[in-house]
Design a protein that fits this description.
Elements lengths: L1 H17 L9 H8 L1 H20 L12 H30 L4
Helix pairs in contact: 1-3, 1-4, 3-4
Length: about 100
């Protein structure tokens, strides 16, 4: 099931970077964020993590040992970073396949 949520996070990143051009040019911070798949993946990971909580009743990575709220925050943070890594890896792979790798 995590793969489905990672793919959903990447879909959010792709949509934000490529289809929401009206967001660009207003805030320098937002422009820099939208240029970075890792950064967008982190925030998309948080969004998907919260969405998974509502969809399944338990958030993704809920199996991470928890001690109340601190453990839940740890699970969400771990998920956000894993999502960022997945989104960056997919972005690099796709750029390589398209011949745009640096």
């Amino acid at each position: 099931m995590p793969l489905t949520y990672w793919m959903a996070a990447y879909a959010l990143v792709f949509f934000g970077q490529n289809k929401m051009s009206y967001l660009r040019g207003h805030l320098g911070f937002l422009d820099r964020l939208l240029e970075c798949a890792y950064c967008c993946g982190f925030w998309a990971g948080w969004a998907v993590w919260f969405a998974s909580w509502f969809i399944e009743g338990d958030p993704v990575f809920a199996a991470v040992p928890q001690a109340g709220m601190p453990g839940l925050a740890l699970a969400g943070t771990a998920w956000a970073f894993s999502s960022a890594t997945f989104c960056y890896a997919v972005e690099v792979l796709l750029k390589h396949l398209e011949g745009e790798a640096e």
